Amino acid sequence: MIDIDGLAGLAHVDLAPERRERIQEDVSSILAYVETLQRLDVPDVADARGALSVGELREDAVLGCSEQEREGVVNSFPRVSDDGLLEAQAAIHRV
Amino acid sequence: MNVAEIVSHVHGGTMSAREVVDGYLARIESADETLGAFLEVFDGDARVRADELDARCSRGEDIGPLGGVPVAVKDNIVMRGRVASCGSRMLEGMRAAYTATVVERLEAAGAIVIGRTNMDEFACGSSTENSAFGVTRHPMDRDRVPGGSSGGSAVAVAAEMVPLALGSDTGGSIRQPAALCGVVGFKPTYGHVSRYGLIAMASSLDQIGPIGHSVADIAAAYRIIAGTDVRDATSVATELSFPSMGPMDMKGLRVGVPKQFFDDALDGEIDACVRGAIARMEQAGANIVELNLSWLEAALAIYYIVMPAEVSSNLNRYDGVTYGHVSPRDTFVQQVTATRRDGFGDEVIRRILLGTFVLSSGYVDAYYKRAVAAQRALRAQLDEAFGRVDVIVGPTSPTVAWPIGEKFDDPVTMYLSDIYTVVANLAGAPALSLPCGMAHGLPVGLQVMGRAGDDARVLDVGYWLEQV
Fold first, then answer.
1. Catalytic choice (B85, B126, B149, B397)
2. CB contact residues (below 8 A), chain B span 226-255, against chain A
3. B431 and B447 in contact (C-beta within 8 Å)?
4. Beta bridge partners of A79
5. Residues B231-250: pLDDT tens digits?
6. Which of A94, B144, B153, B361 minimizes the number of CB atoms within 10 Å of its CB?
7. B105-119 pLDDT, tens per residue?
């Protein structure tokens, strides 16, 4: 059986007790299925960038956006201050 | 009515766009209560838009090649000012700040977006049972699933609530529900249709595509949504070819039939339907080439490593700080973990944990890197096969639509329903599912797959199959 609590910690998920056992069993059964790959003769790979080659990507450049799109993003924040600062959900210790 | 008929009526003045929209809205009103295909219907806006198109038409303006055609959009494709919830509590009520390229292009071509459709949460699922907003039901049997994850879009088309819909396909999520519901679904070559505005599940596999009643309708939508887009870094810049949709000579067409697509998992009646379609191609002069592609046997295992790895990475952004749902707690860590616990359903959690495992220190070499190597080997084997054949055909799904709940608690059995469709995603290849008969009283789908970039040929072969 996998260390489901360790995994949940890495994934930043709090597993409710009623979910924990069932999900542990499910993830273990899926891993048992994908184990079939371990029995195959697979060539070594030097990197893990996926099967997409980097040549298929366009140049990584800032494209900007329309004023309408910018407004839409800004307005989706909980609050915007008078001087244009955007307020997100608190991400600090409250106590 | 098919897409061409709608366009012809609206352009020719024999029917107004408003009449078309009113007709489909009436159908949604009467049918969707028991089907659950739509999460939201834009009835007011659709009528306003139809009136605008009619006014333009009456002034003699060209309203575009899809002028007056209602379209439904999967809930993971964003439209400015509208909710895009991805079927998840995590994004419930979240309104998009911009519009996806595919929707912009459809609207510029005169299409009318009529609503957003239900889906498995974050496209994680094969049955549309995993939506936080309810199950979508099969149009021929309300006790069965429609397939997924684009089940809402497939049902909307199959039940005549809309002539055309957009779905997304990461491992079969357009083709499998299309097959189970008896309609046509197309996953284009990776990069041919912009993903800008598609909420990411597994970015190297995701692709937007159309669902419709016929290959001609699919091709009409594909012509509009395909093409390069600087806002999608993986969009291809090459000139695309489009299907001729005319008479096609089957003589000499090399049709590959991998034995791995006719394995023990395949239902006997589906096997007979698919072999019947292959026999018709052979009778018309096609050369049937039996293929032995050993890597296809590993495709589902590769997929269930690569896909969750990308899911765990993409869905890491849902932390209650930058997007959507938040479960307030005293500390940051408590807040993030509680937000993700409350916001995500079980299938999403399973895939996040699985992806976290295969990418974790000590396992990444044995799982993720090994899967990537195997994916490359599979692509190389398919490339070699496409030197000998023009298209590869087989069943879309090993079974017909199953009873709601039957596979819900058994994820591996559920995953097996995608065993023939994940191949095209892993290869970045175009693949079409079209109806090819009935088994156990339910629709069967035939899958036609081509080499990456050969979308036009796949659609032309599908069009031929539809005519015979």
1. B149
2. 230-231, 233-237
3. yes
4. A87
5. 998 998 888 889 888 888 89
6. B361
7. 999 999 999 999 999
